[in-house]
Amino acid sequence: MAVTAKETVSNDLVIEDGWSEFVAGRYREGKSEAEFRNYDASVVPTVADFYKANHELQTLEFALAKEKEYFALNKGTMSIWQAAEFLNTLVDESDPDTDLTQIEHLMQTSEAIRKDGHPRWMVLTGFIHDLGKVLCLYGEPQWAVVGDTFPVGCAYSDKIVFPEYFAANPDSKVPKYQTQYGIYEPHCGLSNVHMSWGHDAYIGHVVRNYMPEEALYMLRYHSFYAWHQQDAYSHLLSQHDEAMLPWVKKFNPYDLYSKGAAKPNVGNLKPYYEDLIAEFFPDKIAW
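Given the sequence above, the corresponding structure tokens read:
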């Protein structure tokens, strides 16, 4: 298909019309686009069960407590590659699209980005985007680590998957939390909004001093589908959020549609990624 440049947001990356469809067509080997993100409870009941727990238990109080606990970065030090290997035993219960190991999914994403000639920082973003899932290996339940994220402390959007499950969340009984703005101000910016706790916020905080701002938005909000795919919560966005949205949308189809691509050869690719990691990170960082 023809891809026409629409808007240049940086010297090294162009946002194009039809980008999601273009990437989906390139990286959906063995799987049609319609088969991704199938959240029919009758088709994948374990995913529905996951979101039932997630939506019932992700409260503002819970998110604030987890931010305080994990943003202290006192869980020890690891290299990026060590974190990827540490993560590799995890199976994501929220994801209906893949049963590969975590490191294979990371490489599927980053290799798709590399294949399309994007800058090295974006390739690395693909490789590290799910490393926050090590929270599960610290003892956190999966409903507090994976799955789509959403703002807490304000009204839930019906664009969130399985919105009916929010009826059992204690915050749904707090009138202030169920207004449009809740505890926030109009256009306060996502940096001032507390999201449901998960791996996005954690990895974004862990690498905040090492990666460019565009990468940090990709990391912090790649699971915020109600925003970057459904245009929800526009009333909370700042101008800076609006400027960063094209980067998040650029990243998302690589994360999603690369799950249909061929399994990467981890051993063969490891030297490339060790070199790439060393370009941006010291030997070990705080987690």
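Confidence is low (pLDDT under 50) at residues 1-39, 94-98. Try to locate this feature in the token string yourself.
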